[in-house]
Amino acid sequence: MRFKLFIGLVISLAVSRYAGAQGFLKAQGKLIVNDKGQKVILRGMGLGGDMLQEGYMFKVAMLNQQYKIRAGIEDLVGPEKTAEFYNTWLANNTRKIDVDSMARWGFNSIRLPMHFNLYTLPVADEPVAGKNTWLKKGFEMTDSLLKWCKANHMYLILDLHATPGGQGNDLPIADRHPDQPTLWESRANQEKMIALWAKLAERYKDEPNIGGYDIINEPNMGFDDPKDVRGTNEKTNAPLKKLMMEITAAIRTVDKKHIVIIEGNGFGNNYNGVLPAWDNNMVLSFHKYGNFNTEKQIANFMSLRDKYNVPLWLGESGENSNTWYTECIGMVERNDIGWSWWPLKKMGGNNPLEIKVPDGYQKLLDYWSKKGPKPSAAEAQVVLDQWLQNLKLENNIIHRDVIDAMFRQVRTADTKPYKANIITNNTTILAADYDLGRQRSAYYDTDTASYHYTPGVNTAGNRGYAYRNDGVDIRSDKDGPYISNIEDGEWLQYTLHVKAKGVYTLRLAVSSNVADGKLSIKNGDKALGENLVPNTGGTQNWQTLELKGISLNAGTNKLRVYADKGGWLFRNMEFVK
Q1: So where are the chain's domains?
Q2: pLDDT under 50 in the chain at which residues?
Q3: What is the spatial distance between Cα 169 and Cα 238, in angstroms, rounded to a whole number?
């Protein structure tokens, strides 16, 4: 009987695992469907920083474009070591372990931001004008990624992120050199881009795990008005539409099966003059950052979907708080819209994986920003080698709170422990290890997300930018994380697993530079006690508050710490029986 149950479990897991990619995707009315005609909600992740480095991802905004980052590294260690650095970068940043992990976490698709110069030479470097030299590197990398996606029954969406010449005035996203002709100023650049898409379509035309061709990332150019540097006010978008139609025609000469994904001007969102669709297997992409998660914010895109009977895809979003993620993903999925988040990893904590900053990295940053002396080649090489090792998933910090917010919290308001929190005779719990869950379920904070593209709304979410990505403000020092910026009415919930029923003394490590802080404790609906938080003489002068007579039952207890009056900091709490 046990053997039968085991076999049944294996079959069930296999069915669940293989329920990902089901043949070629296609546009069917307002939906994306698989080859069985079933609706598919794409849940994807973009590999930003892989083929294309953007300065902010690695704290090198002073260099910003990838060609400048490369030049900065070459200045330190020379051209040969720089070439080795980039070969290792491309080998280490995204590997099979990354794809396997994404599939396990719940992603069913990957968006690959491609740099054209891994597939073909820039126009100016072609030995024969008008000809295209094809490079193995980009195609081989794409083949490997596709193989790993196949093994996990995931879709791979090809996204031309850095186009020949660059597609707009945002220089880092296209690794654009401002002194060279843009994509729109050079017919040779356009023809190279068209030829590249034809080459990709020819190579992958029979691959059902290719989810679609995202033919141009975030065009941002004022064609009619050069002062419209973002392209958000463009009325006709004639050059953009013309090029996308030419690319589509080139793809269709060799590939009739795959979805063609288009993006409007103004970073994917300005579709003035672009529609109606010119292909019967087309999807409209839009990008969404830093605004409210209400249907009003995406109403114009849903109107385009209804008017022209084409599916929508949120092709890029993210870089905010967990609360924002849960709200945004829930909203678009309720409206039959798939999504792709950005990025998988960088130096920062609001993505699933965080790349650790290598030792000595600040010396490189100081030199590049002209604030410090030039490190020796040997010294710089040590830092660069550690950076390359830190790219690997096994050396990343995995932010399971981010993953939980993107999947489990979208579907339930239930909370779960962040850590085991097993209470014995003497147990200390970090204040930052409150439960996993939504705002108002696992915690309450007055500021839970950044709305940096919403005029007049000045919020940041986690103002400490440390440890976790919820709205709770967490900072970190040499002794670890602690809760900061505590305001009136905020609270944190901790699921405790108590070994033995008893009465405990609760010792809370707090600090404050105000005199009227106050906290209280509840276990479920039962009030356990309250205490004033004194002025400790500074936010880094930690003292211990004692609450005696705290009754805990054996088993699960849900303890909440309330800030009845804020203004204090909270590091940990110790349970003493």
Answers
A1: 2-50+106-348, 413-576
A2: 1-19
A3: 17
Q: Decide which of 3.30.230.10, 3.30.2350.10, 3.20.20.80, 3.30.70.1290 is the CATH code for 2-50+106-348.
A: 3.20.20.80
First to last CA, the chain: 45
Tell me how far apart the alpha carbons of residues 259 and 280 are, in angstroms, rounded to a whole number.
Answer: 9
Q: Do residues 111 and 157 make contact, with C-beta atoms less than 8 angstroms apart?
A: yes
Alpha carbon distances (Å) from 235 to 268, 301, 386, 548: 14, 16, 48, 68
CA-nearest of 145, 109, 146, 103 to 16 is 103
413-576: CATH class: mainly beta
CB crowding 145-157: b at 16 or more within 10 Å, else e: bbebbbebebbbb
Could you give the CA distance from residue 310 to residue 280 in angstroms, rounded to a whole number? 9
Q: Please check whether residue 225 is in contact with residue 234, taking contact to mean a CB–CB distance below 8 angstroms.
A: yes
Strands ordered across the beta sheet of 353-354: 345-346, 353-354, 397-398
Q: Does the model's pTM come out above 0.70?
A: yes
Instruction: Count CB atoms within 10 A of the CB of residue 223.
Output: 18
486, 367 in Cβ contact below 8 A? Answer: no
**How many Å apart are CA 473 and CA 467, to the nearest integer?**
10
Count of other CB atoms within 10 angstroms of residue 180:
15
Two tokens at 574? 């110790």
Q: How many residues does the chain have?
A: 577
What is the rounded CA–CA span in Å between residue 258 and residue 213?
7
Gap between the Cα atoms of 259 and 214, Å rounded? 9
At 12 the pLDDT is 37
CA dist 508 and 542 (Å) reads 10
Instruction: Say which residues have a Cβ less than 8 Å from residue 378's Cβ, sequence separation at least 6.
Output: none
Task: Let me know: does 464 contact 474? Beta carbons within 8 Å.
Answer: yes
Sign of CA dihedral 329, 147, 121, 215: negative
How many Cα atoms within 13 Å fall on the side-chain side of residue 221? Answer: 20
Q: Which pLDDT tens digit goes with each residue over 333-363?
A: 999 999 999 999 999 999 999 999 999 999 9
Tokens of 84: 């080795």
